[in-house]
Amino acid sequence: MQDISGKRVAILATNGFEQSELEVPRDKLRQAGAEVHVVSLKAGEIKGWDKSDWGRPVPVDKTREEVRPQDYDALVLPGGQINPDLLRVETKALAFIRSFWTDKKVIGAICHAPWLLIEAGVIRDRRVTSYKSIKTDVINAGGKWEDSEVVTDQGLVTSRNPGDLDAFCGKLAEEIREGRHERRAA
User: Fold this and answer.
1) 77 FRET partner, CA 20 to 30 A, in 117, 162, 169, 183?
2) What is the pLDDT of residues 77-97, one digit of tens each?
3) 0.85 exceeded by pTM
4) What are the start-end ranges of the E strands in 106-171?
5) Do 37 and 26 form a contact (C-beta atoms < 8 A)?
6) Contact status, residue 10 vs residue 39, Cβ threshold 8 Å
7) Where are the membrane-spanning stretches (predicted)?
């Protein structure tokens, strides 16, 4: 992975995130030199979903109220079915995501997390992938869906599932190193 020392990354999640889709990007981006914060709606811990049952708790570094998009260079949205479904009804979470897009910063979303991109209004006319069960949702929202392990469109990095995490993390680091994507239309 590319060196992204000095970069700051927020991972926005709540209970029910897919365990590996939060922990692997968090750990790999930290190993690449980034300062990574797990951001959630409430302080304390959030509990993951690990394949077919509840997983391990993960400490929350900051609450959504304690952070501003301008504090970060990139945003990562882990999937799982429960996590993005809970977050996509949270107005402040959607505004947080939308701010990263408007500010032309890198956003990574994996598995079911493109639901959040749909609700935040950033998926239209973008090349993306997702977990196969939400393909129709993505297409109906105007996304250009592809069945690839990682798809990148002007700083928007998406992947299908935990099997794509190496490609997802590698592309995230590359995009974070490149910085803002000025040609992107908000």
Assistant:
1) 183
2) 999 999 999 999 999 999 999
3) yes
4) 106-110, 127-128, 144-145, 151-153, 156-159
5) no
6) yes
7) none
